[in-house]
């Protein structure tokens, strides 16, 4: 085997592991081999082998009767140990669940990966428009300048560095995606001043989003959370923004811990 092909094969395996883990969500608590095969257009034999390996590693459970797979707690906890704040102690998951329950709409967490924005986590709401939400799931990426969540994430970059980032994004953008740098800068400054954004969700969808930056994040790795809706949902953006602000404000009180007298 050529030496240069090894990293590529390893990258493909890593991608497939992440695909399997991201398949599971509130609407997909269990999965069969064929569910994974159909979703990602993967070979059946290698998919079956991969799922069996994840069971051996303690990341998945396998039901011997239905031959279906489900996530094991280790899959959730293995990454949380290296995190801090609202990610480590579960407050972020609680926040997502709360917003979805309050609004009935879908909720997404967004992060920055290089020059792209990413849907870090996706929670489909019970009354969310299927038309607007079609094709949306965790892991999707697109250039930061292409949608509202990206503008919000760009607002966390220092202005002196941001100008260079915008020029590079514009240079690499397709012709129909190019923008006037001064206009984009003004849009991002508005996001920076308010800490919020309202606009198109992007990621190939027709949905809109109301989003806010999450507090206490490393400036080089910002996170934002947004409530996603379609035109037919007939929502009040102002009400969604208040709901978002109230929920984020409540994160601080949830972090307080009363120590026992014997605690160090």
UniProtKB/TrEMBL annotation:
All copies of domain HTH iclR-type, residue ranges: 11-73
Entries under Pfam families matching the protein: HTH_IclR (PF09339)
UniProt entry keywords in alphabetical sequence: Transcription, Transcription regulation
Keyword field contains Transcription regulation: yes
Superkingdom, natural source: Bacteria
Stated name of the protein: Helix-turn-helix domain-containing protein
Species in which this protein is naturally found: Novosphingobium anseongense
């Amino acid at each position: 085997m050529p030496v240069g092909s090894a990293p590529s094969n390893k990258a493909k395996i890593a991608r497939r592991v992440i695909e399997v883990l991201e398949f599971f969500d509130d609407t997909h608590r269990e999965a069969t081999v064929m569910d994974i095969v159909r979703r990602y257009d993967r070979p059946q034999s290698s998919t079956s082998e991969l799922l069996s390996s994840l069971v051996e590693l303690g990341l998945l459970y396998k039901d011997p009767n239905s031959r279906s797979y489900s996530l094991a707690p280790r899959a959730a906890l293995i990454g949380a140990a290296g995190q801090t704040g609202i990610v480590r102690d579960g407050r972020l998951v609680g926040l997502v669940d709360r917003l979805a329950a309050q609004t009935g709409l879908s909720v997404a967490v967004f992060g920055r990966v290089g020059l792209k924005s990413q849907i870090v986590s996706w929670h489909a709401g019970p009354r969310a428009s299927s038309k607007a939400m079609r094709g949306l799931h965790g892991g999707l990426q697109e250039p930061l300048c292409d949608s509202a969540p990206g503008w919000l994430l760009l607002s966390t970059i220092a202005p002196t560095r941001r100008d260079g980032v915008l020029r590079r994004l514009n240079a690499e953008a397709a012709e129909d995606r190019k923008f006037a740098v001064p206009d984009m800068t003004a849009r991002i400054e508005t996001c920076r001043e308010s800490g919020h954004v309202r606009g198109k969700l992007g990621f190939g969808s027709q949905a809109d989003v109301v989003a806010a930056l999450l507090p206490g994040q490393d400036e080089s790795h910002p996170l934002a959370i947004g409530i996603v809706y379609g035109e037919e949902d007939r929502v009040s953006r102002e009400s969604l923004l208040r709901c978002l602000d109230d929920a984020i404000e409540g994160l601080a009180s949830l972090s307080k811990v009363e120590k026992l007298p014997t605690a160090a």
